[in-house]
Predict the structure.
Amino acid sequence: MTAPEFQRRLGVCYYPEHWPEEGWAEDARRMVELGLTWVRIGEFAWSRLEPAPGDYAFGWLDRAVAVLGEAGLKVVLGTPTATPPRWLLDRHPDMLAVGADGQPRGFGSRRHYCFSHEGYRDESARITAALAERCGENDAVAAWQTDNEYGCHDTVLSYSDAALAAFRLWLLRKYETIEALNAAWGNVFWSMEYTAFDQIGAPVGTVTEPNPAHVLDYARFSSDQVADFNRIQADIIRAASPGRTILHNYMGRVLDFDHFKTGADLDAASWDSYPLGFLEDRLEMAEARRLRLLRQGDPDFQAFHHDLYRAVGKGRSWVMEQQPGPVNWAGHNPAPLPGMVRLWTWEAFAHGAEVVSYFRWRQAPFAQEQMHTGLLRPDSVPAQGYAEARQVAEEVARLHNQGAGDVGLRRNPVALIFDYESAWAWGAQPQGAGFDYFDLVFAFYRALRRLGVGVDFIPPTVADLSTYKVAFAPGLFAWTVSLRQVLADFKGVFFAGPRSGSKTKDFITPTAMPPDLPDRFPGLVVSRVESIRPGAEIALEDGGVLQLWCELLDVPEEFSVDEATAEGDPVLVRRGQSYYLAGWPEQDALARMVSATLTRAAVKTEPVTGDLRLTEDVTYRYIFNYGPEPADASPLIGAREIVLGTPNMQPADVVIARR
Ligand code: GAL
């Protein structure tokens, strides 16, 4: 994956509608003085942009854009469709998304709309068009954000009447005949056969679990609705505002829609990075480890998403919202260790972010997020993140002037295939509590990052893997025809499992039995699977255990058994350049297997110690200390020329050296 060379920039999220107009110019002046280039506005402002149906009030927005633009800032304009105003509900009382409990989502926060509601789609197109016509050619408007965080607060799946009607149509288009649908889903089981598409409901409210094929199709349908909704806005903006970058801001660990599909209609991806909220709410780990990382966040979680969204953005990524201090929404909301706001920013840049934009300029004194910090306190006095943002701005400028020039992405040797459908498939049929696709892929990513190698995420629709030395496909539930071909042609080392290829796209066990990839694994058969509860882990011969998942393999003679259980059952088998893993090893054992794979692929590893992390781009090597104690980075620096920092790293320190 290659990206155009670019210059790194900082930005901030700003809500002019929250503050007296007399203060806008001073805010803009301070943003520029701080070293910011971008400012995102507008994404929740519908009630002020259109106070009553058709009664547009764009005057204040024009003035805000003018004030920001005159100060020298570039504006990212958000479409306000994540927050339909109250009057819209009177026009479309049935536009609300409906929960699995059958209850419509209430008004009074945000994201209450259903993606399938045609009336709401029209309203969303209308306000987008009005905004794009008004501001699209404005020189200060240099980028657009569609909506805000699709899927936030669990809003991809809706069970409204509009969704059900659209689902039936989606099924009709996909299967054409009801017989084909019955066959694909295996509806002969439990007499679930239908005779007409309009008999089909949403997969909720059944007595026991619904058919996983039904659940998977509902997830696919819902994902397509997000992509369709987004495309309507992207097309309107592209026509009315040529040359501007169109993005959406995705989230951490939200896999409810296929980001690759939505991203295909956009120019770049961005995401919202809240490392301390994620550590508290979105990751399982031992309590001692969580306490150790309390003020820094998980050392691999942000990097994972920078790399994933770089792929979603076809090589181009931003951080649209960067945590600047304590947030309001996690179970507990600690303050970052001094230096972490700077570290997170540099880490994003190191992984290819073009822009890092802080959320938000000034802490709001009112409503839901009044406990969420900004760069400024509510009284406009600088808060923790302010000085750190300034420091990064100065450092970026200094490095740029030192002749590094624009930065570019490095070509990474490792491909990690990432598939949203697999997350839905294993969600529909986990077979063991705790079997979670994100956790599985993240375990591989952690292992790779600790070995100091760079990773590119790859969608399962990839057309060619030939630039990679090794490709990993953990937990990929089904092979597509095209991926089979790509893998057959791939000359590098390939690593699959556990569970890879254990279903067809229709969620049926393949007749040939998993892993069902004869080009790579001829004759290899997964003959039985079991899931493992905590405390019942299975010991491995070379140390460590299998947790959560274990497969019994029939292994043809030409395969070698590279890892086995203490009882002698094959765990990691190999034929030539192809590995299959028959279980979920805990982290250290997985790292051992990943390391052996990289060695076979002739990928140079450079294991990091403790909570140091290493990233490279075309110009620099970056080292980050996520640990709460000093760490010696000299082994990772070697003879390289340091341009920022010192080898004896303090907590939250960053070192940048020439490669
Ligand atoms: C994001 C959202 C923002 C704000 C922020 C608070 O999820 O896009 O609007 O709510 O979280 O951390």
Observations:
- Residues 148-149, 152, 272, 274, 321, 327, 329, 359, 369, 372 surround beta-D-galactopyranose (CB under 6 Å).
- The chain is about 35% helix and 20% strand.
